[in-house]
Amino acid sequence: MALTPDSLLALLASHGIACETFQHRPLRTVEESKALRGEIPGVHTKNLFLRDAKKTLYLVTLSEDAVVNLKGLRAPLGARGSLSFAAPELLMEHLGVVPGAVTLLALANDRGHQVRVAIDSALMEAAHIGCHPLTNERTTILAPDALRAFLALTGHEPVWLDMAGGAAEPAPESASAPEDGAGSGN
Fold first, then answer.
1. Residues in the chain with pLDDT < 50?
2. Domain at 120, CATH number
3. What pLDDT does 168 receive?
4. pLDDT digits 0-9 by tens, 131-149
5. Which residue range(s) make up the domain with 56?
6. Does residue 54 form part of some domain?
7. Could you give the CA distance from residue 14 to residue 18 in angstroms, rounded to a whole number?
8. 3-class SS at 91?
9. How far is CA 24 from CA 28, 87, 110, in A?
10. For residue 177, is it within any domain?
11. For residue 62, what are the β-bridge partners?
């Protein structure tokens, strides 16, 4: 059974993963989210739930202003064939969220490690990163170390992307990769 927003926040707290959560009206787009700047700190994210021609699922998390070229993501993700947006039913089945609430924190619901995750390494240079806690009516702010702890907790080892200039390339090994190598690959 999928976690609820409250059970997710309780999971973070029980594992000592520091965060701060803000309540707000539902946000379905980056543009709606930008209207709250000044009220909610940190870099905010854009999340893409994708699948390739072989039905491999990917969660790609970028800065909200990142320009995305799906063809450019294929090689760094190791995708086979073209990438497309996955169906909302797959999103609910694997991450327990609906469109408009896609988030890195939904990886807590991917207990079978069916979703591969990729993160723009530039996000990890920010003091705080904003993610929805399984609902688009809240934003949870985490420091990069807290996000790394969350990924280790869920057992997801991301592919680190370098999205500078709109081109996706694997980030250099030393660039913002988790220092402890935590997590079991998926």
1. 167, 172-186
2. 3.90.960.10
3. 57
4. 999 998 999 999 999 999 9
5. 5-170
6. yes
7. 10
8. helix
9. 12, 27, 26
10. no
11. 46
